[in-house]
Write a structure and sequence with these properties.
Distance between the termini: 23 Å
Number of helices: 18
CATH architecture: Up-down Bundle
Number of domains: 1
Number of strands: 0
Helix content: over 70%
Strand content: under 5%
Structural class: mainly alpha
CATH superfamily: MFS general substrate transporter like domains
CATH topology: Growth Hormone, Chain: A
Radius of gyration: 21 Å
Length: 438
């Protein structure tokens, strides 16, 4: 599609909506583990660190597998990868539902479900959405990521399923939903690139439009950077790659430590499990709102948006830490809204930064390696949070570690400094494109 009228319906937005729905379920399987965590603690009677083990292993396998999944996306395309991921999620959850010992959750939830999460998650969808959107990349990824990080809204539903069918039956229901919904959507609805629908990025009507270049979100500040055809070896030799890797690492540590242990903390101080689950769900709604608000990174820049998210996260975690009894539920509600919105703002800025700096034919592989950092941090955080609780009998030190981690992530984003490579469209003076060196 080289020229013509702008399409009445830009198919990219349909892709965004269905990616949102898919990851709401995919990551919902992981993020509802805190609801199952309480039930599993009661049944198996293990330590909190040990019971958090399958969740930590899930994140570790997710992270370590992301690089391989990214390369697979570059080779066979994201749609086939997503279908395989959905089948793995279904298989793993069926195995979890039949487990009669805690150690069985390690291979089923920690490995098989994790690989499914990875293949039907960010490693597949961020490259896909980066193909469809350039000018509105932050907005598109923000809407999409509302499904990723907003998955905790499924927590109250999960708790109701647990109450009705016990935790094993609840996992069976989730297994059926994963396969029955994701597979047909991936096959019949999703498309990897605008060209597959005869369209151009951002719904442009001509390749002459800036949004249609598929390679630029604003003029390049660093001309040498613009000339590079990025692949993994070249990316690994840049400061920007490693700064973004550490943003992923410490963000993953912070958010997964808090996500896993927040419900247990609320129950410990006197709230009912259903009330705690509802607050956990409210975090998810906060993330959805924050992810949409995170689209301001298309106007004020990736670093500033991420910093606002960091400051809000620090305030939210502090309020959770200070919740010592059930007499002030407003503190828990405030935590849920503030923390949720703040985490939601961080992710569009981070994911858009990765695409801004390294978008190209091998972006799937590079993006997968960066997600590895999130998985490693996500594996360490929940286990460390449980271990510190076992040692101290409270979550004070656990949540302090989470606050330190998000602060380091904020500093690392400024070290990556994507604004020095590619300013966003809304920035002053970002209205024209600089020619790209061949």
């Amino acid at each position: 599609m080289k020229a013509g009228k702008r399409p009445l319906l830009f198919y990219g937005w349909i892709v965004v909506v269905f990616c949102f729905l898919i990851v709401l379920l995919v990551y919902g399987v992981r993020f509802t583990f805190p609801a199952f965590y309480v039930a599993i603690l009661e049944e198996f009677g293990q330590s909190r660190g040990g019971t958090a083990g399958p969740y930590s292993l899930n994140l570790l396998v997710y992270g370590l597998g992301a690089a391989a999944v990214g390369m697979l996306v570059d080779r066979i395309g994201p749609r086939k990868v997503v279908v395989i991921g959905a089948l793995l999620i279904g298989l793993g959850l069926v195995g979890v539902s039949q487990s009669n010992a805690l150690w069985l959750l390690y291979p089923f939830f920690g490995v098989i479900v994790a690989l499914g999460n990875c293949m039907a998650g960010n490693a597949a969808f961020i490259p896909m959405l980066s193909n469809w959107f350039v000018k509105r990349r932050g907005l598109a990824i923000g809407i999409y990521f509302a499904g990723v990080a907003g998955a905790p809204v499924v927590a109250p539903l999960a708790q109701q399923l647990i109450d009705a069918f016990k935790w094993r039956g609840a996992y069976l229901v989730l297994a059926v939903l994963a396969v029955a919904f994701i597979v047909p959507v991936a096959v019949f609805v999703l498309r990897a690139k605008p060209a597959e629908k005869g369209q151009l990025p951002d719904g442009a009507s001509s390749v002459a439009e800036p949004a249609a270049t598929g390679q630029r979100s604003a003029p390049m500040v660093n001309s040498e950077w613009s000339a590079v055809r990025w692949d993994v070896p070249k990316a690994l030799h840049t400061r920007q790659f490693w700064a973004l890797f550490f943003v992923n690492l410490f963000l993953g540590m912070e958010v997964n430590l808090v996500f896993l242990h927040q419900m247990a903390h609320a129950v410990d101080v006197g709230y009912s499990k259903m009330f705690a689950a509802s607050v956990f769900g409210l975090v998810g709604f906060g993330v959805i709102a924050g992810s949409y608000a995170g689209s301001i990174c298309d106007r004020i820049g990736r670093e500033l948006t991420f910093t606002v998210g960091v400051l809000g996260s620090l305030l939210g975690i502090l309020m959770l830490t200070l919740t010592g009894d059930a007499s002030q539920p407003w503190m828990l509600y405030s935590y849920a809204v503030i923390f949720g919105m703040s985490f939601g703002m961080c992710n569009p800025a981070l994911m858009a930064s990765q695409a801004d700096l390294f978008f190209g034919r091998r972006f799937g592989s590079i993006n997968g390696l960066l997600i590895t950092g999130f998985g490693i941090g996500g594996a360490v955080g929940p286990y460390l949070g449980g271990l510190l609780f076992d040692l101290t009998g409270a979550y004070t030190w656990s949540f302090t570690v989470a606050m330190a981690a998000i602060a380091i992530a904020g500093i690392s984003m400024w070290v990556a400094a994507p604004r020095k490579i590619r300013p966003v469209w809304g920035a002053r003076g970002a209205g024209r494109l600089e020619p790209v060196k061949k």
